[in-house]
Write a structure and sequence with these properties.
This protein is 25% helix and 33% strand. By secondary structure, the chain is α+β, with helices and mostly antiparallel strands.
């Protein structure tokens, strides 16, 4: 019988191994560069998760989507 700390360590190792042999995660990335006048330049980057892959197992690695309208 595992204690609480040992169980958490076992889960971490197991999920990390299963994630390492799972499919890759797939993101769509959009980058926007625009300028206002000759001096002001702006950059914007957005990402949307298309296929979670290993992120279904390793949930602590997931980032939130940053959609650009």
């Amino acid at each position: 019988m595992l204690g609480d700390r040992e169980w958490k360590l076992y889960q971490f190792i197991t999920k990390t191994f299963l994630g390492s042999i799972s499919d890759d995660a797939v993101y769509d990335e959009v980058r926007v560069l625009f300028s206002v006048g000759p001096i002001e330049a702006f950059k914007l980057k957005g990402t949307v998760l298309k296929k979670p892959g290993f992120l279904e197992i390793m949930t602590w690695q997931t980032t939130s989507d940053k959609e650009i309208p």
